[in-house]
Amino acid sequence: MSVLSIGVIEKRRNAKLKKLMTIGPVLQGSITNVKLTCGNPACKCARGEKHTSNILTKKVKGKTKSVYIPADMLEDAKKWTEECKKLKNMIKEISDYNEQILRLYVKTQRAKKKNLAAVKKQSQLKS
To answer: Which residues, including other chains, have CB under 8 Å from residue 100's CB and lie 6 or more apart?
Structure first.
């Protein structure tokens, strides 16, 4: 595996940052189709044919919260949750690039200090 320079990593990171501008509306959570009964004894669900409904679920302070998704909003909600996944992946990739930059910077700074110490020692030996 070849080691990339900080400049190359920065270019890749900056390209990802530009891609962030292409992200549309986002919605956190998962969409689930649930079957439920309405409670009306005369309804078909009381005989076993349950109603279907779509809900958005997400964790808030450790508890699962649900939001009903109207049928005419389902496609939009799906797109928004997909955009949220893309956004999270992009943020992770950008963070990974920044971590690589930090690690390379530290490594190069240590190498510079080591080289300077060696040059200093070399010049003292010549004197």
So the answer is: 4, 9
Q: Which one, of 54, 60, 53, lies nearest residue 77 by Cα?
A: 54
Residue 73, Cα to own-chain centre: how many angstroms? Answer: 24
Burial of 5 (0-12, 13-18, 19+ CB in 10 A): exposed
- CA separation for the pair 58, 78 (Å, rounded): 14
- Percentage of the chain modeled with pLDDT above 70: 98
Separation CA 70–CA 78 (nearest Å): 12
For residues 80 and 69, give the distance between their C-alpha atoms in angstroms, rounded to a whole number: 12
Phi, psi of 41 (to 5 degrees): -65, -20
Q: Say how far apart CA 69 and CA 73 lie, in whole Å.
A: 6
Mean pLDDT score of the chain, rounded to an integer?
90
Reported as a single tens digit per residue, the pLDDT across 70-101 is 999 999 999 999 999 999 999 999 999 999 99
Q: Give the length of the chain.
A: 127
pLDDT in tens, 50-71: 989 999 999 999 999 999 999 9
